[in-house]
Backbone:
């Protein structure tokens, strides 16, 4: 009986410590990357706004079956929906199964004539749950690296068009 009581108390204390540590992490996480490119804003918009053209630069789209219906793309366990566009940006709602949704913004900012910075950011709001907070630690490493690769692919697709 004392062993069971010790195990229960140990579990409660450990869970409390883990939860307390996770509360130190922010609830809003932003991962962003940027790349400079010499192209017109129309060339950039062609590949960014229209989900039908993402297969030219998104690695995962080349490897998996993508279904596009209107402004929404379905790929594997993810849904990407265009929710807003301007002449210099596109905002998407990116949902992956089992994760809180991402607010994704891709914007192209002018540096000089036909010279732009493409800025891509993923913003995720998580609950206080420890497993969600600890998961955000991986976002910068995994998501950031993938964004760098895809931005390089986007630059190559734009320059080769």
Residues:
């Amino acid at each position: 009986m004392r062993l069971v009581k010790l195990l229960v108390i140990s579990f409660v204390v450990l869970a409390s410590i883990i939860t307390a540590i996770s509360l130190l992490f922010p609830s809003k996480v932003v991962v962003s990357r940027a790349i400079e490119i010499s192209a017109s804003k129309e060339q950039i918009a062609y590949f960014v706004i229209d989900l039908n053209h993402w297969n030219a630069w998104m690695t995962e789209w080349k490897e998996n079956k993508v279904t596009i219906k209107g402004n929404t793309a379905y790929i594997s366990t993810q849904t990407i929906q265009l929710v807003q566009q301007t002449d210099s940006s596109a905002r998407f709602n990116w949902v992956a199964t089992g994760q809180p949704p991402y607010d994704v913004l891709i914007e192209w900012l002018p540096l000089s004539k036909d010279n732009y910075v493409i800025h891509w950011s993923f913003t995720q709001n998580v609950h206080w749950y420890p497993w969600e907070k600890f998961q955000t630690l991986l976002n910068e490493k995994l998501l950031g690296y993938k964004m760098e690769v895809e931005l390089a692919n986007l630059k190559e697709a734009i320059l080769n068009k």
Q: What stands out?
A: The domain at 27-160 is CATH 3.30.530.20 (Alpha-D-Glucose-1,6-Bisphosphate; Chain A, domain 4). The two ends are 73 Å apart (CA to CA).
